[in-house]
Amino acid sequence: MDSTTMTAALNAAARGWHVFPLRPGSKRPAGHAEDGCPGTGRCAGGHRTWEQRATTDPGKIRAAWTHAPYGIGIAAGPSGLCVLDLDTTKSGEEVPARWAAVGARCGEDVLAVLADEACEELPGDTLTVRTPSGGLHLYYRVPAGVVLRNTSGERGQGLGWKVDTRAWGGYVVGPGTLTRAGRYAYVWDGPVAELPVWLIERLTPAPLPAAPVRPIRPASTRRSRYLDVAVRAEAGKVADAKTNRNATLYAAAVALGQLVEGDALTEDEVRAALMTAAGRHIGTRQFTEREAERTITSGLRAGAKRPRHVA
Prior knowledge:
The protein is of the alpha+beta class. The chain has 2 domains: 3-203, no CATH class; 225-303, no CATH class. The protein has 10 helices and 11 strands. The strands form 3 sheets. Strands 3, 4, 5, 6, 10 and 11 form a 6-stranded mixed beta sheet that branches. A 3-stranded antiparallel beta sheet has the order 1-2-7. A hairpin with a 5-residue loop joins strand 4 and strand 5 (136-141). The longest helix has 17 residues, at 245-261. The radius of gyration is 22 Å and the shape is globular.
């Protein structure tokens, strides 16, 4: 047992941050990957991701960290955080022309340039962690009702070169964690400031229209009415789910996966029907498109173990 990292994990949880174990000396989550999921124990209802396993429960944290000197992963979304990851320039790395022209040499510089261009104050005075590479993690609270995703560099809604963000679907290595590259340590262990409005606006993607639940049509004239009703019923449960969306999607995938394995349906049509039904929930809390796809895959795999044949 490593009492140092256990204490750090408990301290993080006391702040309201949802934590989960990282492999000792690594930045990767502990536990099995989805493709190696046994479908038993905590994953009996479908593979549980690190984001789903993250907790603030002191008892669960003590139980986990008693087993090994785990590092600390902080699930940003469930914790109500958006963490700005400001990276450094590697030896010999060329600075892109757009940033070299304004004298930027690292993520900190890029953030300063962005603030200046937006005629806004440089965001500061918030809890800050130094990474082993010399970069910084700036922690910010996300206002209620705002849902942000991860960004990477300048891609998509990204802020800029050497600036990543971690929100829903992402995690950061927590302070107190020792990796092979070094330790993550507080620079300033103060309050977590609210994410500035101008950054929220930059990071919020344009809203997408809700995915319609298209009528499920028979794949061919030979398809029985029973199968058509079965697909409609399962897709309808997913579309109408108000809570436990992921569990509902998993159960539907298991049921239809049995018919796929029994050669009554094709996997492609089942995936299409379930993804269409799940589409209206994408963006709700931690329910992402990637998570929906994984859940369907897991459910189909479980259903295949108990094939159903339709005459």
